[in-house]
Amino acid sequence: MSSDAPEPFDPGTGIAADVETARIEQEMEQSYIDYAMSVIAGRALPDVRDGLKPVHRRILYAMHESGVTARSSHRKSSSIVGETMGDYHPHGDSAIYDTLARMAQDFSMRYPLIDGQGNFGSVDGDPPAAMRYTEARMAPMAEELLSDIEMDTVDFQPNYDDRLEEPEVLPASFPNLLVNGSSGIAVGMSTNIPPHNLGEVIDATVHLIEHPDCTVEDLMEHVKGPDFPTGANIVGRNAIHKAYKTGRGRIRVRAEFEIESDDRIVITELPFQENKARLVERIADNVNEGKLEGIRDLRDESDRDGIRVVVELKRGANAEVVKNQLLEHHLESTFGVINLALVDGQPRVLTLKETLVEYLEHRRAVVRRRSQFELGEKEERAHILEGRLTALEHVDDVVEVIRNSESRDDAKAALRGEHAVEVDGEVLPSFDFSEAQANHIVAMQLGSLTAMEADEIESEYEEVQARIERLETILGDADELDAVVESELLEIKDEYGDDRRTSIIEDTGTVTHEDLIAEEDVVVVVTEDDYIKRMPLERFRAQHRGGKGIIGTELKEGDSVSSVYVASTHDYLLYFTNHGKVYQLKTYQVPEMSRTARGKSAVNLLDLDDGEEIAAVVNTAEMDSDAEKFLTMTTRNGYIKRTSVENFQNILSTGIIATKLDGDDALVDVEVTDGTRDLILASRGGMAIRFDEAEVRAMGRSARGVRGINLADGDEVAALASVDGDRHQWVLTVTEHGYGKRTDVEKYRRQSRNGKGLIDIKTNDRNGRVCELETVGPGDHLFVMSGDGQILRTPVEDVSIVGRNTMGVIVMTLDEGDAVASVDVHFPAEEDAEATADATDAAGDESAAVDDGADGDGDAPQ
Question: What confidence tens digit (pLDDT) does each residue in 648-667 have?
Fold first, then answer.
């Protein structure tokens, strides 16, 4: 073997012996935890006792040490930042100055701790001026946090370079964590504590002292909720209660505003931490983009007296709708409460009571330590005064001892009784003074030996003894200690307490999309290919019957209109399909479009199956009453049934079954009834049957129903109408070729269901088959829509009254190849009177029959 071969490596020798083996995941985990705890405890989270983070505490203590108090002159901010950074806070100057500036902002701090002079920023988000331009000093409230710090009230720790000492916490004469709040982001956690009213927090603390077993609810009798420096309103109390009881919650904060007139909304207070300039900019952007309608001008009239943002409305704009739109997107924010603070150096989420309990324990410790410190001082002073009084009683002997001593130290020793002093062979009296007493007596001036000085010393000694007795009582009696804490808190309240700025208003529910939509009547159009849209009703003015109407929708090739109906934007509508299912939709969810627009595919709004088409629409507003209501349905093959509206309370987004269908049958029409009405079924072939609603018993949703009309071969049901005796005077029938007639409802005598009925209207080549039958009354308006998209609105009185079994008159003129697709009846509100201004006054010609064969009133066979 060669002697040059390397020796085997021994890991236990040399440098390798100092290398430790570690798993990288463990090392990374421990390093990250160390870093996280450093950030948590050393930067981001406040201490529950004084409510301050280290940077706040160090700034205030540096100012205290430099004498920059509320009674001193202002000092350059750069000087304060420099001293804080050099002595206590080894971080960047910008971070320190940002903190200093925030403590001076009355819109950020409920009770500012810094009295600033110069530009310290604004609610518009403007940054503070450079630190060389601003000046600062402590605010009186900050001095209360530092009060008695020289009296050994808190522990101190070395500063970052061990040159100086800094307090671990401030004495804090009031619960600053709740009063001024705090926010910060640590590693893996964050805190967001809202500010509160000083008087309310102190009242709650006093209540806790007197009733240690109180609950959060009891404390909330005093602490009503957060009190933000910018005022505004908190919406509802439930979130406040949750935040106080669990330490977490989401509080809705709403701006203060008022509608000064129908054309102006004025904003006077903003949610906490809302940037006013950015808010105004966002509103303006939304107006320019068309997302916010009804606003013609926006002005910021704010000054030093307060916020005033004026929103000018367009003529005719609905102030309530604009207000709700502003609330939805701009004037309401959420304050997420996370009451996280350091307790014994560890982060904890605290309830309201736990926060006050921790503060009280700290304050008791402060008062106890202060009392112990003062007791020591007073006992030392009493000891000195006792020596002085003894010296005054033996003043001649004391003077002789001092005068005949060889030195000051010899005199002190003689007074302490360590040796005797002889004068002319005579030994002077000896004393038993302590070292402190002897030192003080030797330092006394001759002027202090007067009788008046003696009286003052006696008086002071009595006061000191009384104070010692009081301090011993405080230290020996927990109730007396609490009484001191309570009285000092109440003094702070009397000195600095003020009224609430933030109001708490009742929660009327969040702003819904419905609140952002003006309530108005609209015309909704649905096509065979299930395109749907809505248009304002006011776009369709009443015309004479016989006109062509106006374009109501643009159709793609091969499509045609299937139905038209009138509703309010705030109505809930039930959409019944030919497959016997029902869906629910708010009218405002149907997209608003122009008359010439095609519409939006209904499959984006309703979960329709292939081949499923909307057959009937029911407004749930008709179902609202104390009386029991029913949905009465009819099918193409003549079946009819009634189902209580209670079976339609919970309609899924995918729809629910409304009725059972057999074979090729299909749902045709639906009416809301109350169990007391008559029903009229109309067939395509011109037949109509009237019978009592009670003949159709109430059934479940899955039932098929019973026979309503006995149809001739090839005939099918066209429509269903109910007769309300209070307002329905006529039966109005419209055929597919645009003809129609109005007949007294009494001309349709009551029969038993499942009969063939009576002849309603002639369905020849001119008229075509029946498209719709409606029961109408005075003032009703008829909306007729053709398959090609034309809409005609005309008063029903414009259609002549004729008998049954007649031809009728022209209602709507149609182009060649076009046909009536749908008919709806609407009773206009009084304010809609303008829409009827152009309507004909033809109601006076009600008895005139048309020339096309008013040929009798004969009945068809039963």
Answer: 888 887 889 999 999 899 99
Mean predicted lDDT score pLDDT of the chain: 87
pLDDT at residue 856, as a whole number: 41
Among 822, 819, 713, 821, CA closest to 768 = 819
- CB distance 337 to 194 below 8 Å: yes
Query: The tokens of 851 are what?
Result: 């020339």
23: left (phi > 0), else alpha (psi -120 to 50), else beta?
Answer: beta
**C-alpha distances in Å from residue 708, one per residue of 716, 754, 759:** 12, 5, 16
- CATH homologous superfamily, domain 370-492: Topoisomerase, domain 3 (1.10.268.10)
pLDDT value, residue 15: 67
CB of 658 within 8 A of CB of 701? yes
> Which residues on neighbouring strands pair with residue 583, listed in sequence order?
575
Cα end-to-end distance, the chain, whole Å: 129
Q: Which of 802, 735, 730, 733 is nearest to 763 (CA)?
A: 735
Phi-psi label, residue 713: left if phi above 0, alpha if psi -120 to 50, beta otherwise: beta
Tell me if the domain spanning 542-561+626-655+664-845 has CATH number 3.40.1110.10.
no
Instruction: Clarify whether 111 is annotated catalytic.
Output: no
Residues 6+ apart with CB under 8 A from 423: 400, 404
**Among 32, 35, 133, 160, the one annotated catalytic:** 133
Architecture of the structural domain at 256-330: 2-Layer Sandwich (3.30)
- Which segments of 730-823 does DSSP mark as H helices, in order? none
Phi/psi of residue 290, nearest 5 degrees: 80, 5
CA distances from 506 to 40, 236, 247, 499, 522 (A): 37, 5, 22, 20, 33
Long-range contact list for 31-40, CB < 8 A, 24+ apart? 35/187, 36/186, 36/187, 36/188, 39/186, 39/187, 40/186, 40/187, 40/189, 40/342, 40/347
> In terms of C-beta distances under 8 Å and separation of at least 24 residues, what long-range contacts does 427-431 make, across chains too?
428/397, 428/400, 428/401, 428/404, 429/394, 429/397, 429/401, 431/390, 431/394, 431/397, 431/398, 431/401
Cβ atoms of residues 540 and 839 within 8 Å: no
Q: Let me know: does 615 contact 640? Beta carbons within 8 Å.
A: no
Task: Using the predicted structure, report yes or no on whether residue 846 has a pLDDT greater than 60.
Answer: no
Please tell me the CATH code under which domain 52-170 is placed.
3.90.199.10
Q: Using CA atoms, how far apart are residues 617 and 629, in angstroms rounded to an integer? A: 16
pLDDT score for 831: 43
CB 258 within 8 A of CB 240: no
pLDDT > 90? residue 580 = yes
| Residues 6+ positions from 690 with CB-CB distance below 8 Å | 678, 679, 680, 723, 748, 749, 750, 751, 757
CA distance 243 to 252: 12
Say what angle helices 276-288 and 319-329 make with each other, to 10 degrees: 120
Provide the whole-model pTM: 0.67
| Mean pLDDT to the nearest integer, 278-295 | 91
Q: What is the CA radius of gyration of the chain?
A: 45
Domain ranges of the chain: 52-170, 256-330, 370-492, 542-561+626-655+664-845
pLDDT for 859: 41
Q: Count Cβ atoms below 10 Å from residue 705 Cβ, excluding itself.
A: 21
